[in-house]
Input
Amino acid sequence: MSIQILVVEDNEMNRDMLVKRLQRRDFNILIATNGQAALDLLQTERPDIVLMDMHMPIMDGWTAIAIIQENQILRSIPIIGVSANGSSEDRKTALEAGCVAYETKPIDFNRLLALIQQFTKRAS
Output
């Protein structure tokens, strides 16, 4: 059974590139373009892991993660925060908010694959 990943990213170019690379590795991909769309999708789908952009319109990743953490069922889904902001303060805040990891753009794809493997194994 394929690992299902929810990719939450508002930038079409970033999203398409990441989704294509993940699909080539046989991951099953769900897509949301903002935090609210991710929350809506999580009402019906339970992905194995979430890749959450932190800065998006409508609802940012920070807000979506806070709402996810309040839900007993959803909070068990590992979230990797993703942002162009590589500051140590943002990384610390993301981990404190509930992310299992925090990656900066441009994404190091090999490191991302290792994180996906690490946290989906732990989840199963």
